[in-house]
Amino acid sequence: MKKILQKFFRGYAVLEEVYSPINGKIQVLEDIFGKRRLVVGGLTQSGEAVEKVWRKTISNFQFPISNCLIMGLGAGSAAKVINKFFPEVKITGIEIDPEIIRLGKKYFGLAEIKNLEIKIADATLTINHKQSLLLRNQSLIINHHDLILVDLYLGNQVPASAETDKFLQTVKKILVPDGIVIFNRLYYSKKVTEVDNFEKKLRKIFPKIEAKKIETNKLFLCRTIKMK
């Protein structure tokens, strides 16, 4: 009854609210139409609005994709879109916060996404570690990906480790020559200058970049080679 009254007066009900030592306050909200969204640090990080951003970005891709790496899996919005348009693609999703994975499975169908392998880890440390092992010539198979999605936020902030030259260069190295890496950034008010500076850094590393403004997001589609 409480949730029904919340929907009537607020337009949404709080299905669950938790505090994470990694992300702070996390809420699962459900509106009067039964649509759910994951709110972290006051910002929607999973749900229909987030899926819409990814649909507009990747639905028209025409190049072959066999595997995809998602850094910042969240509750699975991007993985759902990949699975819908490219059902045979093998997806590896890395998420630092186990609480978000738990909520994703409980409220957003994360466990039902086909061909998805979930890893609870810090994505920046994970790929930097792989690269360091490769440089030391240790026997580790380094996966190279056709598509990489980088959607790394802690609350409403991008961790500094996800903007270093080392991280960006490592992402470039684990991308196949004709693949695409997409960086998703919030792009409004005080974040505009921050993202513009990030774009300048990307353009020093990737020879081909297409920027797309979708809703309050700006996405950078980066390639390691210039397409003819």
From TrEMBL:
Keywords: Polyamine biosynthesis. Pfam families: Spermine_synth (PF01564). GO terms for biological process: polyamine biosynthetic process. InterPro entries: SAM-dependent_MTases_sf. Coiled coil: none annotated. This is PABS domain-containing protein.
